[in-house]
Amino acid sequence: MNPLAAELNEILDKGPAGPLLSSLGRRLFFPWGIIAQSSEAKKTAKINATAGMAFHGGKPLALSPMVKQFSSLTPEETVIYAPTAGIESFRQAWKAALIRKNPSLAEKDFYLPVVVPGITAGISYIADLFLDEGQVILTFDPFWENYSLIFTERRGAVLKGIPLFKAAGGLDTGVFEKTLKEEAKSGQVRIILNFPQNPSGYTPKKTEADELVRIIKECAENGVDVLVICDDAYFGLFYEEGIITESLFCRFASLHKRILAVKIDGPTKEDYSWGLRTAFVSTGSLGPDENTALEKKLMGAIRSSVSCANTPAQYLTLKVWEDPASAADKETFFDILFRRYWMVKQFISENPLPPTLEALPFNSGYFMSFRCKTGGTTPGGAEKLRQTLLKKGIGTIALGEEYLRVTFAAIEEEDIPGVFRTIYEAAQELG
After folding, report:
1. How far is residue 228 from each of residues 98, 189, 219, 314, 332, measured CA to CA in Å?
2. How does strand 188-194 pair with strand 158-163?
3. Which residues contact 240 (CB under 8 A, 6 or more apart)?
4. 363-403 pLDDT tens trace
5. Which pTM value belongs to this model?
């Protein structure tokens, strides 16, 4: 093992992160190579002949059409490599925004977020660091299909789904507790929580969130090492009273010495910038030295894959945040999504569901989902329903044979009644 990796492991083994590291996670480190040496040279060298970039007159060489297309950015903000962990001002701005949106974070052990090229990449890097082949990671079911690709296909781990809802509705914290206790027998528990949830569009009520926190804390108090990943891709899109409006990460950071809390989020959905592929990984529950060591591990994962996140996307987003028009636009966009959400809720409440469809509870985010039944309570038929709807000009997502996801955020307000009427009719036709 590389001595730099061994040194980081020695630091991390003193806290919650070390015991949870995968074999790859233990091997990863941030090398004293081009990036580190280039960073050092920037601080002191008069002539910097380190990084693989070309300069003239102290400015990076940049094609004039490139500069023209990014007219609000300088060449330095457009074509230069970003630091591996992200542009410092970008990271600082996101941390400040997180505390503003989650006030309780101000009192927690919470450090500067690391920039990654999208939320998917952030989840994938954390999987690299903390999941080995055959190890189990828990999540609520139904779940985002990319979890299977990341955890199962890439890492060879076992993704175990916990039923999201009780038969009577509401989060099934009872099954969650039972599953967690069973997994805790191994001495370690890894969980990924996604709220507002994809594909159901559900965020826990405050009492349900309290239960999740109690269950996980008791697990740690019984001597189990716990990794809690909060996938907060749809954070902020909350449409009902009584549900949590702060990330669960706030509750897990500093909750117990055996709990490592990780938050993965970004402007992707929050700031309607899907294609810019910028996101953040934040950690809690660590001391300063441990956080620095884990950050270097994460930087090693980034450096060994994409090297760094997109430079112009980071600077462009910073400028967008600084523009007062952004806040006004976000309020307008929230109102648009809220009206669409409410119209779907209203349609479902006013129109009896076909016997073969069950609408899952939803109160936030972009989506709602139907549970498809072939008869009685037997699940099935989601793909047939998707294919039937496609012939009628409506695109939806089938998640296995049981769930059909509808992105109401993508449907114009005036089209919502027609779309859902067609879904009902198609389900009736299939019987």
Report:
1. 18, 8, 12, 27, 33
2. unpaired
3. 363, 364
4. 999 999 999 987 656 677 899 999 999 999 999 999 988 99
5. 0.93
